[in-house]
Amino acid sequence: MEIRFLNSQDVTAYYALRLQALQESPTAFGSSYEQEACLPMADFAARVCPADSINGIFGAFDDTNDRLIGMLGFSRESRLKRAHIGNLWSMYVVPEFRSRGLGSALLDAALSHAKGLGVLRQIVLGVTANNLAASSLYKSRGFQPFGFERDALFVDGVYFDEEHLVLHFDRCD
What we know:
Blueprint: E1 2-5, H1 11-24, H2 33-36, H3 41-48, E2 56-61, E3 68-76, E4 85-93, H4 102-117, E5 122-128, H5 132-140, E6 144-155, E7 158-168
Parallel strand pairs: 4-5
Antiparallel strand pairs: 1-2, 2-3, 3-4, 5-7, 6-7
Helix pairs in contact: 1-3
C-alpha cells in the first residue's frame, strides 16, 4: 500500500471515490452525493491540487492495481490568527479494505505531515458520534473530545450528532 498526497493525475479517481463515500456512508460527511455529483470536475481538481503544498488529500493506493482505496483531507487554517490550527476531514476507506490498518496509516501520514510543518499547535476534526470505529482510531492517536454538536447532520429524515476532537502538539518546532 502506498500513501501520498493526491495530485493532478488522481482527480478522476478522487472524484469516483468521493462519490462512492458519499453514497456508502452518508452520515460520515457534511456534504451529500446529490450535492457533489453536480459539481464540475474543476471543483474536485481544486481540492486535489491546492495552490500550496501544505493542504491536500492523502490517498491510500492498493499495491495490486494502484487503485485509490482510501482518503483523508488535511488543511491548515489560512487566517493569520488561526494559522496554528490544522484540520482533518473526509476520512474514508472502501468497505472491502477496512480493518486492515488503512485508516491508521492515512491518519499517521496526515499527522506526520502536520507535525513536520513545525508551526501547528493543534489538529481538529469532527466525527459522527455513532461512528465508534473512527472515534476510537482518533482517540488512539491522542485526540480528545472538546465539543458535542447535537443534530449536526440531517440524513434521510434522521438527525445525527457530531463529536469534535482536538489533538494538541506539545511543540512542533
